[in-house]
Amino acid sequence: MGKVKILLGSYVGSVNAQDINCYEIAKRLNSDIFEVHVLHQKNKVDLGNNVHFHRISNNRLIKNLSKLFKMATLNADIYYLPRIEKIDIIFAKIFGKKRCIVSSVEIQNVYENKKYDDFFNKYIFDYFCISNFLNKLNVKHWNKECQVLYLGSNNSKDDVNFINNGNLKKIAFVGSFEERKKPLDYLKVAKSFPDIEFIMIGSGSLSGEVDQYIKSHNLKNVKTLGRLQNSEVYKELTTCDLLLIVSDKEGLPKVVLEAASVGMPTIYISKNYKVDYIEDGINGFAVQNLNEMMNRINELLSNEDQFKNMRTEAYKLAAKYSWDNVINDYEKYFLDTYNMYIKSSYNSPS
């Protein structure tokens, strides 16, 4: 058998989480086994000589047709479609299991919409979940247990010796300014700690409300940085000490690993979901509400040794889930799934 031709169907060079993940996967898939194809829009990135790029128009009117035409004519062995755009659903509905289409469950909202149920369980050949928490929800809602493939991180340090203190001086929020992400709740926390610097990376429909809240409460300790490229996000995180996630619902927030890779623990509100990566009290905290979140911040402010240890454990977490480690799981999944698809195709009646 020759190389397995795989299309990673997000837009490498963009800042969407699925785009970044596809970039990292494309960079590491074994070129002796896979013929890797990726999509891009205006930002073409360097992935070496073994990756094939396909330009998709930025024009809203023709973007979907451009992507549909490219996917239909590429004739890949495997199509990995993690963004689940409208055109991805249309493509899957047209071609169904005549082609080996796979995807990933990355957020619990998919269980609230029938179109995603159809996409995952009727149109495509297979899918995986990115956390055990989501896998349990998958069994509950769709009666299917899936393989779990964790997202990876990029570690820039060789060891943890760079974590030389337990001073908590700067806290970060990373995400869209949308209702689900609760950016105004983050500002309520910032209001309670005027001596700590708080930064916000992102933008969205609540940007006006965020700006108004900062102005009306005179929050001089808060800086909004807008939406940044992934490399710029990482650069900002290297200046921070702690990540807060105040969202109502999440899948497995990639930013937890990005923060951990620079020694930043995470405190998140776990009322409606669970972050597999976080061991409560070890490399972060799972809390039930904002009051408990603020209590945990005070706890870390009063105990520098505890915070230093937590930062060290966070970094070790990122090292465990580095892309160089988890890529082997992705390669095995793609190969095993394609082989199952071939057998099922051969065994199905013509």
Overview of the structural elements:
By secondary structure, the chain is α/β, with parallel strands linked by helices. The chain folds into two domains: 4-152 and 323-347, Rossmann fold, CATH 3.40.50; 170-321, Rossmann fold (3-Layer(aba) Sandwich). Helices cover 42% and strands 17% of the residues. The protein contains twelve helices and twelve strands. It has helices at 17-28, 60-74, 86-95, 114-123, 132-142, 183-192, 207-216, 230-237, 254-260, 290-301, 304-320, 323-347, and strands at 4-11, 34-40, 51-55, 78-80, 100-105, 126-129, 170-174, 197-201, 222-226, 242-245, 266-269, 284-287. The strands form two sheets. It has a six-stranded parallel β-sheet, sandwiched between helices. A six-stranded parallel β-sheet has the order 9-8-7-10-11-12, with helices on both faces. Helix 2 packs parallel to helix 3 (86-95) and helix 9 packs across helix 11. The two termini are 23 Å apart. 40% of the residues are buried. The model has no long low-confidence stretch (mean pLDDT 91).
Q: What is the alpha-carbon Rg in Å?
A: 21 Å
Shape annotation: globular
Number of helices: 12
Largest sheet: 6 strands, parallel
Concise synopsis of the structure shown:
The protein is an alpha/beta fold and 350 residues long. The chain has twelve helices and twelve strands.
